């Protein structure tokens, strides 16, 4: 079974990367107007990646440069606190309208 460790090429586990990219798509659907009211903000929760692998999802919404500007969305998916550094990361910028 997939252990969520870095692959031989040094990149994140493909299963974790797919989960991070899917979570990022969901995280970015909130929209700038709603996020601007709560940024900076983040949350962490336990869930499951495809195939039933138990993982931790972390989402962060931070100002990219200055408060009131573009919002940087960061997602990290990992196999628990001791494996945070081996987690997969995905980011996207939500530009100010």
Order of helices and strands: HHEEEE
- Please summarize the sheet with the most strands: 4 strands, antiparallel
What structural class do helix, strand and pairing data support?
alpha+beta
| Percent of sequence in beta strands | 25-35%
- State the total count of DSSP E strands: 4
**How confident is the prediction overall: mean pLDDT?**
90
Distance between the termini: 44 Å
Fraction of residues in H or I helices: 10-25%
- How many structural domains can be distinguished in the coordinates? 1
Shape: elongated
Give the low-pLDDT segments: 1-8
Strand order of the largest sheet: 1-2-3-4
Write the SSE topology.
Layout: H1 14-27, H2 32-36, E1 41-48, E2 54-63, E3 71-78, E4 88-94
Antiparallel strand pairs: 1-2, 2-3, 3-4
How would you summarize what this structure contains?
The protein is α+β, with helices and mostly antiparallel strands and 97 residues long. The chain has one domain (14-94). 20% of the residues lie in helices and 34% in strands.
Describe the structure.
The protein is α+β, with helices and mostly antiparallel strands. It has helices spanning 14-27, 32-36; strands at residues 41-48, 54-63, 71-78, 88-94. Helices cover 20% and strands 34% of the residues.
Brief descriptors of the model:
97 residues; alpha+beta; disordered N terminus
């Amino acid at each position: 079974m997939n252990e969520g460790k870095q692959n031989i090429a040094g990149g994140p586990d493909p299963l974790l990367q797919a989960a991070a990219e899917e979570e990022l798509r969901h995280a970015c659907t909130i929209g700038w107007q709603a996020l601007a009211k709560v940024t900076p903000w983040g949350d962490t929760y336990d869930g499951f990646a495809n195939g039933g692998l138990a993982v931790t999802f972390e989402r962060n919404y931070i100002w990219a440069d200055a408060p009131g500007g573009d919002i940087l969305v960061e997602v990290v998916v990992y196999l628990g606190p001791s494996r945070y550094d081996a987690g997969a990361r995905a980011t996207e910028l939500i530009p100010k309208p």
